[in-house]
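Lecture 7 notes: from sequence to structure.
We start with the chain below.
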Amino acid sequence: MTERKKTIVTFSPAGYEKHRETVLEIIKNDTGTDAFVMTKSFPPIYHPPPLTQCAITELTELRPLGSVNVKVVEE
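Predicted structure tokens for the same chain:
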């Protein structure tokens, strides 16, 4: 079984507008769901189900493209 880590995903406003669909697709492909906790703020803060290192890497690669940040909160 692949090790999964709990994460928090944050965006800049421009990053959210530009990458929200890509981020949701990465999370859904990795976890099998697009239903997860997120704040009601703009931009929202995502608290997805635990992610594999592969998905975390994919999300991290979006950082220089538009301010998407991934923080691992559990090792």
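Points to note: The chain has a mean pLDDT of 91. The radius of gyration is 11 Å.
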